[in-house]
Amino acid sequence: MEVFSSLFSGNVSAITFFRLFFNYCFVVFKLIIREFWWLILLFISAYFYFRLKLRYQKIVKTKKEEVKQWTTLEIKVNLDIYQTPKAMAQVFSGLHALSKGYLTLGILGYEQTVHFFVCVPFGYKYLVESQFYAHYPEIEITEVPDYFGSILPIAPTKNIDFWGSEFVLEKSDYFPIKTYSYFEEVKEEKRIDPLASFIESITILSPREVFLVQIIIKPLEGDKEKKFLESAKEEINKLLGKAPVKKLTFADWVAAFFANLLVAWYKLPEWPETSKPDGSAATVSSIEKEKIEAINNKISQLAFETGIRFLYLAPKEEYNEVKVSSFYAFLQQFASKNLNSFIANKEATTEIDKGLFKARRLLFKKLTFYQAARTHSLTSKTCILNMEELATLYHFPMLKVKAPALSRQLYRKSEPPSNLPI
Q1: What are the residue ranges spanned by the domains of the chain?
Q2: What is the pTM (predicted TM-score) of this model?
Q3: Per-residue pLDDT tens for 269-315?
Q4: What is the largest CA-CA distance in the chain?
């Protein structure tokens, strides 16, 4: 009190006052640490406890979502495939009715031949078959053993090596990629099949090399769908130049209280208010218009939570990681600077750049990745793709695709005539 009275009487300078004040604060701080250090440990322990609890709950939730029993269906493509990927988009529209588990779409390049697979949870075989036959009556679907049985139960081994990675969208999920409509033309002879380049790349593989693409899809619904739509609408308002409506939280009121407390001796308190949307029209460029239209088109369709996994496997004497670039080239077709593109998830890629025990860590990472692919487990990161984007990545090549790696059936199944005598 003497210091305060001396300050106001002019006997003590402001510098001396603040020096004494900070010394006093330091003494109080040391006293708090000495007497209540156990509270700090308690808060740290509580932080790690809740963090580990959330991680455990996530693991339990993931195990519940994982499918325990799979049915593997191989789809054999007929010569007479005239449907564009739009037909596959309608297939995904029907598959959005999946209420339990998820589906794994597989494109396998093995023995210089392309094979199409769909792995479905036990009991959903007829749902999947009906959707595919409805839009592709020329195909043949047969139940087969899991395709990993014909490759290897475990990798890498002494004689086999592989490279694998997961792929996600580079930008926010509401920005779309280029879809099949970008490659379509009115005239059939001018149409481009985006899958043709990947099928052609399988032709250059040796009979013992393997390309595998797994696309894991799960219908987007509930809170995840709501959050996805809300973030897309916020982005549209941002592009239109509309200020977002800020919702006040309890933290805002607490922050405002302490801010007012610090300045209350010379200023009236100010409390936060809910911001109102700006109704004024803003000038929108052609690029922003393109983005708004593309986002609106994406969120207007049924969407799936999607994981993409790619694997290249070969004997060590034939292993050549450069061949992986053909898959990058396939994905690069769908990239757009103004919209979205695919990038590799570095955390899941089977590469280790630096650190101790590099070889052992790389081996463990590869074993974990291969086991996840073999059991059709969910990817570590996912993105959101609508049915049109999925149909662009996974569809049956049209008749004009003549790659040697593409195996087509030379026959077509049909119903017997109605007047056939019994």
Answers
A1: 2-61, 70-224+291-409, 242-262+271-283
A2: 0.75
A3: 777 776 555 555 567 788 888 889 999 999 999 999 999 999 999 98
A4: 122
